């Protein structure tokens, strides 16, 4: 889960520049090269020079202006045109751009053709090791920012050439393999590039998972010990994210005399015997639709659930002496990782012995963020007899709305059509939807009008609505999930994710045979990424020691619930 009002802004700006609309406006972009072009041209217009315009396009109401054009087989050198008909965000049309001085930059997000196992051929932006960032993707051509002056009396006629190419990551200090080799914590921290046969078959090309493995202190000194496995779920990180061991405090943390930063405190706790001796696994699973796969099997993104659970994890446990049994595995994560942790435990109930999910993505599609997919006809507004209220997208903890659902979909529609924005709404659609007739994800709602497709929603309900699945399958799932479900969320969650969590709690509290013992914790006024813990914690404290708080809980539950004869001793030295 991520990031961001705009309907009112559209109207205000349109009224302000009525005179300018009478002029023809046109921007031409040329891409050097010889091969036919396939991809998405993204042009960004900014009013400031704080950074390059390509870095300023976002969901937030303070976003720069963007326009997007699909490019299919265009000959290099032939101009790609942005004009009055090109869809834009936050302003819908180039003709609405107010008079003033701007900085302009364009990026060409290169697509490749994938020959899917289903027989469909689709054009998608492959991840190049950057974690699906179109404005940082290696190989993407882009332009040097240029100045633009717009006035109400002259037509806009600008020509841009994409004169640069984003350099590769492989072999640099941004390459995970290079990071692992140079890291001072390499005694504990390992990196594996793992080819998945299941994913390779689905995508029609060799497909890999990246795995960061954090080994327990004393691993080499205790060769007969075997260890539980804890899977940390999160977005793409080039390094191992929170499991990364900072073997010394950062200079900033040292100067502040706070006793070191979070990574260094974890290093101290990890190597001092204060934490259970377990293996922590963090998986990189960026794909052509997003920086994360949600670790489930999907009609559009592929069998990532099987790839991680049936291929990668057994390989990691074999190489690093994992116990390799369900009672000795647990998982945790926040936001996207929170949904993944919960889904992993629900879809693989015998493979795991505990899920700690913080601020999970929507777990009940009655509250798809702030959209009721089941009961509302339109995702972008609520209609009364005399009034229409826009659907809020993001908010501050005090309730201030900083994005609307309509604006967020417009943002993504600039970045890519057919669900190829590589952003949040697009990946949910790619994961949860069936494949459409064209091979791309079936649209759950129209990204321009907001009209909801109830047939697609029905598919979502049956396959990925956690509350609905638990209700439907409780007779078999319930006994397998006792003691395993733990969820925390802030009641001021930035993306309204607390609403779905409350609905899930209501559903589980109504269960019987067995009655669910799932635990829920809500942080009053806390924003996105609240992980639970003592009520006096600040958000910073709440995030900084989450690993140290959940590992002992996981280990204690494993020991208490281990089957007779299980190894609960070799790893407790």
UniProtKB/TrEMBL annotation:
**Oxidoreductase among the record's keywords?**
no
InterPro entries linked:
AB_hydrolase_fold, Mycobacterial_A85_antigen
Q: Which UniProt keywords apply?
A: Signal
Protein's recorded name = Esterase
What is the residue range of the signal peptide feature? 1-16
Top-rank lineage group of the source organism: Bacteria
């Amino acid at each position: 889960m991520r990031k961001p009002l705009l309907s009112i802004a559209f109207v205000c700006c349109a009224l302000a520049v009525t005179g300018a609309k009478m002029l023809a406006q046109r921007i031409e972009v040329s891409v050097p090269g010889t091969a036919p072009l396939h991809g998405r041209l993204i042009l960004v217009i900014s009013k400031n020079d704080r950074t390059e315009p390509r870095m300023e396009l976002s969901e937030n109401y303070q976003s720069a202006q963007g326009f997007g054009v699909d490019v299919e087989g265009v000959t290099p050198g032939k101009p790609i045109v942005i004009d009055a008909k090109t869809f834009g965000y936050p302003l819908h049309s180039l003709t609405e751009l107010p008079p003033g001085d701007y900085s302009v930059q364009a990026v060409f997000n290169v697509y490749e053709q994938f020959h899917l196992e289903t027989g469909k051929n689709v054009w998608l932006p492959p991840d190049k090791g950057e974690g699906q960032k179109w404005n940082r993707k290696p190989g993407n051509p882009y332009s040097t920012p240029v100045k633009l002056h717009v006035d109400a009396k002259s037509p806009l006629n600008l020509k841009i050439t994409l004169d640069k190419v984003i350099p590769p990551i492989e072999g640099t200090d941004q390459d995970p393999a290079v990071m692992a080799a140079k890291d001072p914590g390499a005694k504990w921290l390992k990196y594996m590039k793992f080819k998945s046969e299941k994913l390779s078959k689905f995508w029609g090309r060799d497909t890999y998972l990246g795995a960061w493995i954090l080994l327990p202190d004393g691993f080499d000194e205790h060769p007969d010990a075997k260890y539980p496995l804890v899977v940390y779920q999160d977005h793409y990180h080039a390094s191992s994210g929170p499991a990364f061991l900072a073997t010394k405090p950062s200079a900033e943390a040292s100067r502040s005399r706070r006793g070191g930063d979070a990574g260094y405190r974890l290093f101290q706790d990890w190597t001092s015997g204060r934490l259970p001796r377990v293996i922590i696994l963090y998986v990189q699973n960026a794909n052509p639709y997003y920086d994360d796969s949600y670790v489930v099997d999907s009609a559009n993104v592929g069998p990532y659930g099987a790839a991680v659970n049936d291929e990668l994890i057994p390989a990691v446990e074999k190489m690093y002496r994992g116990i390799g049994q369900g009672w000795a595995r647990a998982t945790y994560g926040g936001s996207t990782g929170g949904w993944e942790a919960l889904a992993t435990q629900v879809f693989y109930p015998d493979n795991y012995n505990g899920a700690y999910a913080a601020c999970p993505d929507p777990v009940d599609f009655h509250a798809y963020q702030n959209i009721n997919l089941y009961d509302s006809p339109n995702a972008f507004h609520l209609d009364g007899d005399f009034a229409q209220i826009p659907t809020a997208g993001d908010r501050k903890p005090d309730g201030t709305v900083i994005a609307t659902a309509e604006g967020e979909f417009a943002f993504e529609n600039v970045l890519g059509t057919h669900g190829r924005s590589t952003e949040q709404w697009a990946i949910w659609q790619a994961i949860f939807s069936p494949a459409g007739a064209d091979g791309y994800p079936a649209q759950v709602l129209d990204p321009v009008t907001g009209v909801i497709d109830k047939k697609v929603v029905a598919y979502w309900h049956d396959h990925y609505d956690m509350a609905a699945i638990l209700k439907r399958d409780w007779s078999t799932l319930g006994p397998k999930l006792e003691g395993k479900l733990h969820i925390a969320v802030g009641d001021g969650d930035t993306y309204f994710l607390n609403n779905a969590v409350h609905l899930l709690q209501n559903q589980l509290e109504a269960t019987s045979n067995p009655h669910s013992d799932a635990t829920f914790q809500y942080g009053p006024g806390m924003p996105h990424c609240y992980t639970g813990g003592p009520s006096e914690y600040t958000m910073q404290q709440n995030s900084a020691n989450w690993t140290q708080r959940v590992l002992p809980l996981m280990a204690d539950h494993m020991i208490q619930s281990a089957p007779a004869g299980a190894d609960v001793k070799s790893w407790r030295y």
